[in-house]
Amino acid sequence: MSFEKQKILLVTAGFPFADTERGFISTEFDCLQQHYDPYILCIGSRDPMIHPFPDTIPVERYFHTISVRSLSGAIKLLGHALHPQTLAELGAAAKGQRMGQILRRYRQIVFYRANAREMEKHMDTLIRREGIRMIYTYWCSEATVAAVSLKKKYPHLKVITRFHGHDLFCQRKATNWQPFRRFIADGIDRLVFACQMGMDYFLHTWGEAYAAKSSLHYLGCTRAERKEAAGSAAWRLVSCSNLIPLKRVECIIDAIAQLPSSAAVRWDHFGDGTERPALEQRAKASFGPNVTWEFHGRVPNNQMFAWYRKLDPDLFLTTTTTEGGVPVSLQEAFAMGIPAVGTAVGGVPEIVLDGVTGYLLEENADAAQVCAAIQAFFALEPAVRQEMSDRAYRLWETQYDAQRNAEAFIAEIQELLQ
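RESULT FIELD:
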């Protein structure tokens, strides 16, 4: 088998189905398949295949099947509940916790190990049948535990995982615990992070000893045809996120509502979610006649640049409470030379450099602070705003070009397989 045709098992949570993960992984996957022979195992997605995908690349859906509702499932779970690995993990998870939280974490750990064990059996079959040389889990999950466990049986096998947000930060779990992270870190070949802050968090939480096998690889976004600013009397604002509580889009609405009534404002938001009806109602009730606005809903990543060229926004806004990496939405804005106002969470401070590429606000910035940042931007001379735009674009060009970042990531894979 030639080096270029070595088989890699890529474990995803949605790709290549629908638009789930497509904006994050597409460029990296295109680069991956140029060098390797990928086999995709998609966990839990029932979405349709709405984009063309090569018939030559095998894609398989996988669903967790462990359940207490069947006798066989209950027996399996009992076995996992009493397994030494489970009890050892519980020992770490129980430190300093009250009984109720201990029980919740115990249940989480039991199901996590049970799902991992079932996946391990399936992956074992794929390794033997397909000649898998590496397993790459795009999220750190039960699949990662399964893959690391298989390294004992297959010494040639390399395993890497990429962290994002809900699989990284303990506070993103209801139990405030991420199971088996030390087991993973002990046995894995590479821990990949989407921002420096995420890597720092992991090492601080689980141990600096894992620094040698940790690496930073920004996701990036594709290159865009940057449009020269046409100039407008209106203050043109744009935001892009899911409409869910942790994104705090209501803070953006309240900030815009506080802008001077003498300013003509245009705001466009891209993204959808459970909070949309309430946010639309809030905007209707809050905005004066000087503000025009629109919720565009969910728009595929490959259409965002066309929208930005059409709308020609001056400033991007994000007030999110948490991020596992550098938001792709910010990278897309910078690829078009759109500076940003953002809260200092996750990897946002790695791209929104205060006074350089935009305005960086404190983590829990309120609407008044967001409003003040917007006004500060539009108080700048046009030439100064243009320089901020240019710096945003140059930062994207040097750090967040998806093609360049994907090639660097593939080079690291090549080193591991050699």
